[in-house]
Each structure stands twice: as structure tokens, then as C-alpha cells.
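Researcher: We're teaching a course module on how sequence relates to structure. For the next exercise, students receive a sequence and then see the predicted structure as C-alpha cells, so they can try to spot secondary structure elements on their own. Here is the exercise chain.
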Amino acid sequence: MQFAITYHRRPNITDEETRRLLRIFMAWTPPAGVELLAHYHFARGGGGIVILDADAASALFEALTTFDTIIEYDAEPVLNVIDAVAIKMDIDAWVSSLGPRHVTKKT
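Model: And here is the predicted structure for the students to work with:
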């Protein structure tokens, strides 16, 4: 399953902790079951976004836990927009096939 992970440094992180984070990052390789697809750093600094594929929640946890003393992150499952549109169109067609929506007013 693919995830978009946005991240930023935790508040009040020292310069030494930032340097430590960079050393960890430079030595890090994704764990088994995690494929890094893209990684972008925000131009304003202090964070970025990672797109990765994880075989299991445990693999995602292992990948993110490596950095969680210094950064905060949000992980969101994502899918290709073409797939998302196709699914949405299929659902809309199915809902429409059920007929008009009936709403009763309470008086």
C-alpha cells in the first residue's frame, strides 16, 4: 500500500539534534517491505514529504520509528488519481442506479 508522509522537525529541536537527524538519515536504508518512491524537502525548510510503498503496517512503523524522536509526521494512504476517479465513478453509478433519494420532512 502506498502512503504519503508529511513530516517536520519537532518544536524546540536543537542544532545538535538536527545534525544527529541528518547523520541517521544518511546512514538509513528502508527496512524490508518498504520501498521509497519519492522524497521531497520543503523549500521553506524544516520538513518534507515522502511517498513510499509498505507491505505491512509493521514495516511502515519500523521505517517511521527510526526518526520519531526528532520529527513528527502524518501518514496517509494514497492511490493513483486515475484509479480514484474510476472508483468514484463506479460508486456514483451504483448509487444512481438505486433511484432518486427520498427525503421526508418532519413537521
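Model: If you want an answer key for the exercise: The mean pLDDT is 91. The chain has one domain: 2-97.
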